Amino acid sequence: MRILFLFAFCLAANASEAIRLVESHGDANTLRTAILAEAKDADLAKGSAVITDGGKLLFVTRATAQPKLLINEKAGPAMAKAGDLYYALATVETGRTHNLCSPTIGFMRLPAILRPRLRP
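The structure corresponding to this sequence follows.
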């Protein structure tokens, strides 16, 4: 029982700060800082930055106009603005492949198994 509790605690410690801030409607500047700490600049510039935590996906991009997101050929959540970044949090079913598309980033295929991003 103690091992299971410790394992659950470790998983919670690795949860994405950026996703937690979006879910709690945190301050935009704090959210932007958390996103920049978790996403690569190159991915933000290409519009392909995705921060994952289980089935929760935080899509982030730099864009001059509000991008649109398609998940499995259906409209995804509207993207909100935090400084020079646009972001959207979506929840998808784990254990299967998903098709993601945005006019600004093109087509991406997500692997069937979504894992949270582990930080040191």
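The mean pLDDT is 74.
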